[in-house]
């Protein structure tokens, strides 16, 4: 099993790139963000990623490197680092069931008159849940529509009842005066 260290985090994204587990540019971008942010920490290679104060590490990175990068680049590194850590922790908790995250991108296109406009992301992002005891279940709601439900592995009957009542309250065709 891969170690939950700073070195393991960086190596994970090298592996994902080399093995074609995900888009090479995406994996390399995540690896670069991890290298940059972790490089601001003392003894980063041995840093326990499971215990890492991600936001604290990002503040330290920003404080030490803000003169080297434009604000937009800093924000990109910070966003990618958060994503990389979350996805890596998900991988560590379930290597065989791990799926890399996809990034929502806003595509900028240029119109014929030279104006630029932003379009919606081309693909929806998959939300990765770093909690060790959580499982994502695909649920076919209706023809062509799949919902994803993330629930604890040890879901209890009382929680199912609460969840059922919650879902019933969300239905748009439900009669609010009739209790289910």
Quick structural gist:
The protein is α+β, with helices and mostly antiparallel strands and 180 residues long.
Structure description:
There is one protein chain. The radius of gyration is 20 Å and the shape is elongated. β3 and β4 form a beta hairpin. The strands form two sheets. It has a two-stranded antiparallel ribbon with strand order 1-2. By secondary structure, the protein is of the alpha+beta class. 17% of the residues are buried. The chain contains five helices and four strands; from the N terminus they run ααααββββα.
Topology:
Blueprint (H helix, E strand, L loop, with lengths): L5 H13 L5 H15 L15 H12 L5 H23 L13 E4 L5 E4 L14 E9 L2 E8 L4 H14 L10
Antiparallel strand pairs: 1-2, 3-4
Helix pairs in contact: 1-2, 2-4, 3-4
SSE pattern, N- to C-terminal: HHHHEEEEH
Largest sheet: 2 strands, antiparallel
- How many H/I helices? 5
Q: Would you tell me the structural class of the helices and strands?
A: alpha+beta
Let me know the average pLDDT: 79
Helix content: 40-55%
- Count of beta strands: 4
Q: Walk across the major sheet and give the strand order.
A: 1-2
The global form is elongated
Oligomer: single chain
Strand portion: 5-15%
Distance between the termini: 47 Å
């Amino acid at each position: 099993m891969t170690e939950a260290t700073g070195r393991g985090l960086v190596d994970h994204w090298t592996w994902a790139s080399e093995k074609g587990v995900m888009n090479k540019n995406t994996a390399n971008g995540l690896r670069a963000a991890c290298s940059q942010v972790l490089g601001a920490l003392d003894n980063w290679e041995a840093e326990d990623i499971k215990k890492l104060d991600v936001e604290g590490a990002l503040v330290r990175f920003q404080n030490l490197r803000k003169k080297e990068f434009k604000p937009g680049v800093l924000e990109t590194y910070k966003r990618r680092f958060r994503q990389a850590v979350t996805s890596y922790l998900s991988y560590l908790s379930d290597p065989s069931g791990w799926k890399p995250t996809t990034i929502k991108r806003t595509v900028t296109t240029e119109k014929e008159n030279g104006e630029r406009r932003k379009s919606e992301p081309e693909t929806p992002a998959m939300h990765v849940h770093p909690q060790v005891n959580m499982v994502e279940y695909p649920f076919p709601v209706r023809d062509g529509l799949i919902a994803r439900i993330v629930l604890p592995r040890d879901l209890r009957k009382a929680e199912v009842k609460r969840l059922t009542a919650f879902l019933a309250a969300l239905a748009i065709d439900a009669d609010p005066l009739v209790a289910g």
